Every structure is written in C-alpha cells, then in structure tokens.
C-alpha cells in the first residue's frame, strides 16, 4: 500500500489483525447497545422477536452499506439476540460450490451463517445457495463425467446473514431470496459522539465532551474511523501524560494530518491539485492520480468517495470537477470568479 499513515487513518476499510482485535473489544453485543441506525434497528428487532415468538429461524437478512458502519457487528448481534450459534465465512473463501456445501451441511438447526462480502462468492456456489436459502436443501454432485449423479441433501434450517459493500453487484435472484435488506447509513455526529463515549469507557479513557465532539466531526460518519482516531488520541494523552481533552485531540489529529472535517493529507493534495493545477477541472482520473503520485485505483476507491459525498468533487464524463464549495473551503477564488459557475 502506497498510502501514508494519514490515509490509513481515514480509510474506512479495516487494517490488519491488530485493528480487528481492537474492534472486537469495542463491538456492541446487543441491539440496545448498537448506536444509531434507528430504522434498521427497529426493523431487525421486529423480525427477530416475531421469529422467536413463532419458534422458527428468522428470515435471511442482507446487510448493505459502506465499510466500517457496523455490518459484521450486526451479524454477531443477530446471532446473540436469538441465542443462536454463529458461523462466519466470506465470499472470497467460497470459491467453489464444494466449499459452500461443506459449510452448509455442517450447520446445526437454527444456526446463523454469516457470509461477509457475499458479492465475491463464486457463481457456482451462488446457485447452490439459492436452493439452500429457499428450501434448506442442496444437490450434491457425486462422481464425474457421464456417470455423475446429483444427490439431494436436506439441511438444518438456518438464517443466512449476508454483508456487502457493493449491493449493486449482487445478482437479482440472490437479492430476492433475502427476507429483509438493511441499508446502513453514515452516522450523524451526535451518534458518533455516543459511539466514541462508549468506546472511551470501555478503554478506560477519561475524555471530555468537547473532545468527543471534535473527533466525531472528523471521522467521516464512520464508527470504525471514530474508534481509530480515538485510539490515536489515547496514545497522545498517554505519551504526553495529559488529559484527553480538546487540545489533545487537536494536537494528535494535526500530527496525523486529519483536518477539521476529516480530510487527510492525500485528500487535500488531490483537491489542491484539481483546484490549482487544473483550474478546478475537468481533469481525468489518471492524470489526477499521476499528478499526486498515487495509483488511480487508490484515488478512485479511497479518496474520491468521501470528496464526492461531502460535495467537493463531482464526476462528469469529461473528468473530475471541483465544486464552488471546494473553492470556498480551501480559501481560493475561482479563476473565472464573477463568471457563472454553471459552465462547469
Ligand atoms: N452502531 C454502532 N455502535 C457502536 N459501535 C459501532 C457501531 N457500528 C460499528 N461500530 C464499531 O465500528 C467497528 C467497525 O464495525 P464493523 O466491523 O461491524 O463494520 P463493517 O460494516 O462490518 O465493515 P466492513 O465492511 O469493513 O466489514 C466495530 O469495531 C464496532 O465496534
Ligand atoms: Mg465487516
């Protein structure tokens, strides 16, 4: 990865074993503890309670949304709330129908099967999953070539919980077999303050409200980033033998180049390049990436989504274009100020 520390801090994708272990310790264990996502929480609660009342396995559930918003956490809660065993797998681990058959045939009644990144599962496995989801049954091929026969196998009733950051990539027949799809949204600042307050308590870190609010404003609406920034603030307070107050947040996050609205060094460099070297654009992705010395892939998947979301950058057929909002934020004036911006 060519990205520096600043970029990793604000990249919503989980980084390595250490972070995964750290996150594990901070995961809410019940729906009640799960902050925000009011709507989804209510929907899940209803679905789980009804299933318990009817003594059946809950419908299959699809959790869709960007990285770091709580999909894995919710999958674990779904199992926990119903007091059901949980089996975890992921799309990339299921590269053949046989991989899936092995998992499905070993499920116990009522088990929750979590398939993370379900859009990356092999096609052949996907087809096996249709039947499994619908009828709790699969057909296993025995033998090879002309003598091959398919043997039906009954499965224990289970609940599939699929997670995807790219629900658009799911084939319709698969999407249609989920009884419920939860769309996770980015979190509001007051919700992130709650996420942070809870995490600080679990970490035994005394921190004041102003400090929490400041971190909440810089974490791009994403609990994973919030927890990560909190960890850097905790380090800073520890090393400098001081309280985790507003000043410590400023100092720690300045050190890591995360600015007041959550932009990091690379985000700012990309914006400055569009604004000053290309007069606000349009500029093509590849040209832009070369200008900031990054892979186009990094610019497109790591940098751009947030800049687009906060309305600093728009994608047009002719290339990336900075918005008036961006010109203002960077304290620059548009070279054609006074002329209409509509021509962009
Ligand atoms: N609603 C929430 N309340 C409190 N903490 C949360 C919430 N949602 C997420 N978190 C925290 O954020 C971290 C990341 O969440 P999680 O791993 O569930 O994200 P994800 O959606 O599965 O991400 P990915 O797409 O990368 O798999 C977890 O450590 C969890 O503690
Ligand atoms: Mg996850």
TrEMBL record:
Please indicate which superkingdom the organism of origin belongs to. Bacteria
Question: Does Coiled coil appear among the keywords?
Answer: no
Q: Which residues take part in binding DNA?
A: 315, 320
Give the enzyme class. hydrolase
Q: Which reaction does it catalyse?
A: ATP + H2O = ADP + phosphate + H(+)
For whether the record's keyword set contains Cytoplasm, the answer is yes
The entry's Mg(2+)-binding residues are 72
Please provide the Gene Ontology terms (biological process) for this protein.
Answer: DNA recombination; DNA repair
Q: Show where the AAA+ ATPase domain sits.
A: 57-190
**Cellular component GO terms, alphabetical:** cytoplasm; Holliday junction resolvase complex
UniProt: ATP binding residues: 26-27, 68, 71-73, 134-136, 177, 187, 224
- The entry's keywords: ATP-binding, Cytoplasm, DNA damage, DNA recombination, DNA repair, DNA-binding, Helicase, Hydrolase, Nucleotide-binding
Q: Which positions are tagged coiled coil?
A: none
Q: In which compartments does the protein localize?
A: Cytoplasm
MF terms from GO for this chain are: ATP binding; ATP hydrolysis activity; four-way junction DNA binding; four-way junction helicase activity
What's this chain's function?
The RuvA-RuvB-RuvC complex processes Holliday junction (HJ) DNA during genetic recombination and DNA repair, while the RuvA-RuvB complex plays an important role in the rescue of blocked DNA replication forks via replication fork reversal (RFR). RuvA specifically binds to HJ cruciform DNA, conferring on it an open structure. The RuvB hexamer acts as an ATP-dependent pump, pulling dsDNA into and through the RuvAB complex. RuvB forms 2 homohexamers on either side of HJ DNA bound by 1 or 2 RuvA tetramers; 4 subunits per hexamer contact DNA at a time.
- Which PANTHER family does the record associate with it? HOLLIDAY JUNCTION BRANCH MIGRATION COMPLEX SUBUNIT RUVB (PTHR42848:SF1), PTHR42848
Q: What is known of its domains?
A: Has 3 domains, the large (RuvB-L) and small ATPase (RuvB-S) domains and the C-terminal head (RuvB-H) domain. The head domain binds DNA, while the ATPase domains jointly bind ATP, ADP or are empty depending on the state of the subunit in the translocation cycle. During a single DNA translocation step the structure of each domain remains the same, but their relative positions change.
Assigned protein family: Belongs to the RuvB family.
**How is this protein organized at the quaternary level?**
Homohexamer. Forms an RuvA(8)-RuvB(12)-Holliday junction (HJ) complex. HJ DNA is sandwiched between 2 RuvA tetramers; dsDNA enters through RuvA and exits via RuvB. An RuvB hexamer assembles on each DNA strand where it exits the tetramer. Each RuvB hexamer is contacted by two RuvA subunits (via domain III) on 2 adjacent RuvB subunits; this complex drives branch migration. In the full resolvosome a probable DNA-RuvA(4)-RuvB(12)-RuvC(2) complex forms which resolves the HJ.
- Name this polypeptide is given: Holliday junction branch migration complex subunit RuvB
